Amino acid sequence: MKKAIETIKNVLVWLLMIFAVGMMAFTFISVSTFNKDNRSIFGYKAMIVLSDSMAKTDFSAGDIVLVKAVDPATLQPGDIITFTSKNKDSYGQTITHKIRKLAKDVNGEPGFVTYGTTTDTDDESLVDYFSVKGKYQFSIPKVGKFFNYLKTVPGYICCILVPFLVLIGIQGINTLNVIRSYRKEQAEALQAERDELAAEKKKTEEMAAELEALKAKINKSDESVSNDSSKE
Questions:
Q1: pTM of the entire predicted model
Q2: Which parts of the chain have pLDDT scores under 50?
Q3: Any bridge partners for residue 99, and if so which?
Q4: C-beta separation of 105 from 126 below 8 A
């Protein structure tokens, strides 16, 4: 039973360690990859969806969308693209919307009229080729929401700090147990050595007593022989 409990304990410790290290790795990868134009994973750029403008048909706020760089000239109506917004209320933000139609700006440069499927309202600014970051490939639900939670103080404490503190505490307890076990073994070894010395001392004293008794017996025998000789 004790062995089974120890095995379960070791498994839980390893699972906790894997979770904590995994959270650290996920946070590091996320910070250095998500929403970074110059970073990609196997050729895909990962973007966190900030609104529900496409929730009706494709993805929601908090999802991760993965996009791949393409030649803007190959894009067609119905494609979903990620681009840098020039709208007044979201200028500079990364938006992922669907292409409604191809168009040209006042200078005759090609671009796209885009819209969010939830409101079915066209974006106010035309998306030019230079603003396109890539074509939508697929999404991963809620991962972005979890990542945003990790960036908060409660998220960091719950998912990273607490697991590592628990691991440090467990390791500290294990270290104390090892030290106590070592001290106990040392004390037992010292006591065993003392007991052995005491046993040897007792044995020596018994041998000395036997020698004294034997010596006294020999002396008594010699005295008896001397007395018999005197009588003759």
A1: 0.64
A2: none
A3: 114
A4: yes
